[in-house]
Amino acid sequence: MTDFSTLTAPGINDLHPYVPGKPIEELERELGLSGTIKLASNENPLGPSPLGAQAAADVIADINLYPDDSGYRLKKKLADRHGLRSQELVLGAGSSDVIDMVARSFLAPGRNAVFSRYSFAMYPIYTTAAGAQCRVADACPADHATMPYGHDLDAMAELVDGDTRVVFIANPNNPTGTWLTKDRLYAFLQKLRDDVIVVLDEAYTEYVTEAAFPNGVAWLAEFPNLIVTRTFSKIYGLAGLRVGYGMASAPLVDLISRVRHPFNVSMPALAAAEAALEDVEFLRRSRDNNDQGLAQLAAGFQTLGLDYIPSAGNFITVNLRRNAGEIYQKMLENGVIVRPVANYDLPEHLRVTVGAPAENRRFLEVLERVLAP
Ligand SMILES: *Cc1c(COP(=O)(O)O)cnc(C)c1O
């Protein structure tokens, strides 16, 4: 029998597939539970944007037709929103699709990508799948005053060499929730060689309320090597539809669009995204729920005497100072799905998505119970 692993393209045998949060249905099937809550995938606990969901439903009768491959209307809306031209936008089946397009366009054997330890798990996957090398920078130390486990931009800059084509930066970062200020990120972009592509992954930007938090879009005119990615999966509540986008200089958009799969964004996804963009009320409610939930979870961790990483996202990562995989399992048995982050080199932490107030309460109660000696 042929050993197909001898035939794969460079990098494929080194891949470890992305591990998603456990689906509610799967847990309930396995353990015969009901009433399970999932706070594991940074999904919006308020559901989808109502305007978005309605718009997707409204086009269902037409799904015998291919979607608009150019995404004309969504791009036009996004361009107006961000003060860009449509040629400066590329749409993806989620923003991870856009990140993959960058990797497939610029990475290859003999080249490398630089990113931080504890950053988003798709960066090594796309880099390795493209046959390129991962250069992983040390993060800020665990006892750092403002950004424990956060991106250390100086350490990242030091890893950039002549073969570096891409630098990935998540702001805020997942799974740490840490974030970089305007000043620090701008200084990094200014120092970096202009032939290195910077992917600034802003999946959680709409949740952030900090004054010193940057909007990467403002830098696009100055840095033609910058691509900013955003998604409808998080605050807009459309993760199940798969739609996101990238913003960059027109020449960069032109290049990465060459590897885009045709019709990569489905018709319901396009329609929902267009409508959700206008759903100001839903965004406001989502942000309020998140601010309150972060405070609720932080207070709960303090009561339990647990350290957590201060987060600007819609999730928070807590240090259990013991094998978090075991606690995760026990929480599953109690019908609460959170996210173990051992695959991010954080075997004693758990990441919990901010839920509705009652979900946060239940999570804290179950956590307290399973931690009890
Ligand atoms: C969730 C997430 C994304 C995007 O996911 P998509 O659903 O593919 O848009 C990108 N980056 C980070 C850091 C994320 O956490």
Automatic annotation (TrEMBL):
The keyword Membrane does not apply. Its cofactor is pyridoxal 5'-phosphate. It is an enzyme of class 2 (transferase). One of its GO terms (biological process) is L-histidine biosynthetic process. It catalyses: L-histidinol phosphate + 2-oxoglutarate = 3-(imidazol-4-yl)-2-oxopropyl phosphate + L-glutamate. The modification N6-(pyridoxal phosphate)lysine is found at residue 234. The keyword Signal does not apply. Residues 36-367 form the Aminotransferase class I/classII large domain. InterPro entries: Aminotransferase_I/II_large, HisP_aminotrans, HistidinolP_aminotransfase, PyrdxlP-dep_Trfase, PyrdxlP-dep_Trfase_major, PyrdxlP-dep_Trfase_small. CDD domains: AAT_like. Keywords: Amino-acid biosynthesis, Aminotransferase, Histidine biosynthesis, Pyridoxal phosphate, Transferase. Pfam families: Aminotran_1_2. Pathway: Amino-acid biosynthesis; L-histidine biosynthesis; L-histidine from 5-phospho-alpha-D-ribose 1-diphosphate: step 7/9. Its EC number is 2.6.1.9. GO terms for molecular function: histidinol-phosphate transaminase activity; pyridoxal phosphate binding. Belongs to the class-II pyridoxal-phosphate-dependent aminotransferase family. Histidinol-phosphate aminotransferase subfamily. Homodimer. This is Histidinol-phosphate aminotransferase. It comes from Thiolapillus brandeum. The gene is hisC.
